[in-house]
Amino acid sequence: MRASPVVRTGRNLWITVLGLYFFVPLVALAVFSLWAGGSRYDFSAYVQILRDPQFHQTFRLSLLLALETILISLALVIPAAFWVNLRAPGLRNLLGLLSVLSFVVPPIVLVGGLSSLFRGPVLGPEWFVGTPQFLVVGYVVLALPYTYRTLDTGLRALDLQTLSEAAQSLGAGWGTLLWRVILPNITSALLGAALLTFAIVLGEFTFANVLLFNTFAVYINYIGQTQGTPAAALSLISLAITWMAMLGLLRFGKGRVALGGAK
Amino acid sequence: MTDSVLFPVADHSVADYLVAESVSKSYGATHALNPLSLSLQKGELVTLLGPSGCGKTTLLRIVAGFTAPSTGRVLLGGRDLTPLPPAKRRMGMVFQAYSLFPNLSAEDNVRFGLTVRGVSRAESEKKLKELFALIGLEEARKRYPHQLSGGQQQRIALARALAIEPQVLLLDEPLSALDAQVRLNLRDEIRRVQRETGTTTLFVTHDQEEALAISDRVVVMQQGRVAQLGTPEDIYRRPASPFVAEFVGTANGLDAVALGGGMVEVAGWNAPLAVEGARPFARGEKLRLYLRPEELRLSELRPNELRLSESGPEGDLSGQVTDRRFLGSITRLSVQVGNSTLVADLQGNEAAAHPVGQQVRVSLSPLAAHVLRAAPVAETQAELAHV
Fold first, then answer.
1. Interface predicted TM-score (ipTM) of this complex, two decimals
2. pTM for this entry
């Protein structure tokens, strides 16, 4: 049924207002990032940022930490979510609750707790706390609500029991089942979880700042406090990186596996 | 009749290929499957038939290895499979739900079991060609599951299960998600493929017509027990209990009392009825009389012959047509005889001669009726309430 002209106009107006709300600040930021004093506009702020060795160094570190966080998160969450969905659906609520704990525990408390834990006699080793990789421990916890929810949704879209039993009846063990049947059917969820983790790690400031590691978020904060237009340029570069990652995901997600049903 | 009498546990024949020996399954105090034994011969297609919750799928899953039995064991060619996981049993399975792997094309689905088993590419190609020819879906090899109809998906699933040359093929209601016509075609297809490959097959269904049409033998299950095992004809014509008689096919079930000498009396009928199967029952014994609708013949009763609700010398009854339902190949008439309503299935032309309201003579041969010792009514009704 076609909407009436009044409804269509109202809808378009609403979308326009929403678009302006999001895009006006971005356009203002972009204009400011190009300001070179007086009435001059150029890309000098971008050139300055891209030539700064700190930019590359901190970005590489955050990228590495993001990849490590993604790998560890997926390695931990996939088997847990798979097992809960297949064999222990009663535990789903408990796991869901545990996964969102990082929302109620402030990052500053989390980092303090984790540091005490790793410096104590139980977990250790103490030297680990002195490496940037220690951040990954906290990042996995921070990303858990997103990774768990995304993967759980992906797994719930599959008829896990039937697919698992079909694979087993054909001779597949658990490894083959996960690798050849389950993972290829939740690629969108895997990519979604990876992207969210990537965005969280790239923007995480508290952990790195408290533990004195110079990550990309700490660098953004430093530039923001010390330089005007380069800060605006850096914000836009950071935004562009995240958008490109999202576009890549959307593009890769196209033509993914169509689940369920019949022609 | 107990299960152990029907299927002696320790004495299965050497020809028995797949044997479920005293298997049972309990979940706490709930008995999903009472101890039962069952054996299949090589190349045979046996159907587990019963209403929801009767334990048929539990038994199939025990054989497949997906459910551990509480007691008993599963033997294949004399070898105990009970401790083996499903992946080590080499049993192909087709499921009720569509089970093709969505990320793989039809041919990759069929190839899956071969790859897992390390079969060479050349050998698996040859096998694939044979299997797709067998199921008549060569043109669908490259398609993905969502590009296939439900019937095609189940045929591919059948080919996938057969690819590993299973020792036993397990079919868990593979037709129940399909449309009526597809279901009929695929039913015949499964039987043809099973015969051609000679694969020993255990088929689960709640559809009695499907079970009768496809099986070498049928196991009717009831509340976790075997109610009867026999050929489809045995099950249909000589049901062992009121439950089987009323679950398999349509039957006019009537309470009757034995009069001795092969005569029975039905409450509300004015004259006794000759029933060959009633000879062994002593006078006064309470019986359940079953008349299959297709065994009844109707003829118009002229006004001068009207003797409502009387049994004639050859077992004829008289009654009145009260309802008619057109069911395509047959027309089902309801005939009021005394206090009972009988249903009679007639072919199209035959039925046209008997409009509603007509007085009719109902004829049946003494061999057409089947009698059983009456079971408590509440028990049979409770069992059928699950159907």
1. 0.81
2. 0.81
